[in-house]
From TrEMBL:
Source organism of this protein record: Candidatus Falkowbacteria bacterium RIFOXYD2_FULL_34_120
Sequence ranges assigned to domain DDH in this UniProt record: 23-168
Lineage summary: Bacteria, Candidatus Falkowiibacteriota
InterPro entries in UniProt: DDH_dom (IPR001667), DHH_sf (IPR038763), DHHA1_dom (IPR003156), Oligoribo/pAp-PDE_c-di-AMP_PDE (IPR051319)
GO molecular function: nucleic acid binding
Any Pfam family: DHHA1
Protein name: DDH domain-containing protein
Length: 326
């Protein structure tokens, strides 16, 4: 396991802060994906083993497809149930930006005796944590948690294993995205030894498409075009595409990953109007010499060099010579 000593120290510091804490708040990002939920469930497992008092919070209710994760039912989504000042330790997981906790104000204005610990693999956006554990080269936050548990000599069990493998599989598109390293696969393999159930995870996270979901994926493939000058592929999903397919916004997850299988292009962009007047964009590349996050940042977003996103106000309209954004 490659880790610099600074990171090992942070892992130890974070663990001792957790040991000293009286009441811990765990929080992951809104619209939680597999990595977000796996990360929070892994910590619920840890604090159950350690017999710590904690509350796990996520602004949006977890999607039922993740019901196979241990402790998922313990995640609270009712903001009223959270009295922020009660906690002496706040742990944010996989959030990218503090705003995605949906508790940004509270986090930024926390009391001096409230320690904030951040675990994340997204590039840094804002400084707010007392202990910032950020490894942008990691495939997933789950992979970072594996290292945290290992450094602190926590005994792995089936629950940890299922959480960590789920985070890795969902954030790497089952090992297909370029964020997958030999270490990622090594960790995944260890998780199988500890009892993670690979088929259960893929059945629930990957092989779970509905007819409307398949149709919207088909639309995105159908709308795919290539700009020959820049060898740049792009596709759009209009409001109309979404309503015709009957797909929900959640079912759009993973489309850009699918489109990025297109061979031989420099990069790919997917624009989708999920709500009237609100456009979301994702950028992907398989080319190590291209950093799509630079373009995403120019467009007000951010992300990783190989996978980033942005959002802006506008409306996608189909014209005789392609699409237009107004
Ligand atoms: Mn993640």
């Amino acid at each position: 396991m490659k880790l610099i000593s600074e990171m090992i120290n942070k892992f130890k510091q974070a663990f001792s802060a957790m040991q000293n804490a009286k009441n811990i708040l765990l929080v992951t990002h809104n619209k939680p994906d597999g990595d977000a939920l796996s990360s929070i469930c892994a910590f619920i497992e840890l604090f159950s083993v350690m017999e710590k008092k904690f509350t796990a919070y996520c602004y949006d209710e977890p999607y039922p497809q993740f019901g196979f994760l241990p402790h998922l039912e313990k995640i609270v989504s009712n903001r009223e149930k959270i009295n922020f000042s009660e906690f002496d330790c706040i742990i944010s997981l996989d959030c990218g930006a503090p705003s995605r906790t949906m508790l940004k104000e509270e986090l930024i204005n926390r009391n001096k005796n409230q320690i904030a610990i951040e675990f994340d693999h997204h590039p840094k956006i804002e400084d707010y944590a007392d202990i910032e554990i950020r490894i942008p080269e990691s495939s997933s936050t789950a992979e970072i948690i594996y290292k945290f548990l290992t450094v602190n000599k926590i005994r792995f069990n089936k629950n940890f294993a299922n959480c960590i493998l789920t985070g890795i599989l969902t954030d790497t598109g089952n090992f297909l995205y370029p964020s997958t390293t030999n270490e990622t696969i090594e960790i995944a393999s260890k998780m199988l030894v500890y009892g993670a159930r690979f088929p259960v995870i893929t059945e629930n996270t990957y092989k779970n498409k509905t007819l409307s979901g398949m149709k919207i994926w088909g639309k995105a493939i159908n709308n795919l075009k290539i700009n020959k000058k820049y060898n740049f592929a792009y596709s759009v999903l209009t409001l109309n595409d979404l309503s015709e397919s009957g797909a929900t916004v959640d079912e759009l997850e993973g489309i850009s990953g699918l489109l990025s299988n297109l061979h031989g292009v420099n990069a790919l962009m997917l624009l989708r109007e999920e709500f009237p007047g609100k456009i979301k964009g994702s950028l992907r590349t398989a080319n190590n010499n291209i950093d799509v996050s630079k373009l995403a940042i120019r467009l007000g977003g951010g992300g990783h060099p190989r996978a980033s996103g942005f959002a802006f106000d506008g409306h996608i309209e189909e014209t005789n010579n392609g699409w237009r954004i107004i």
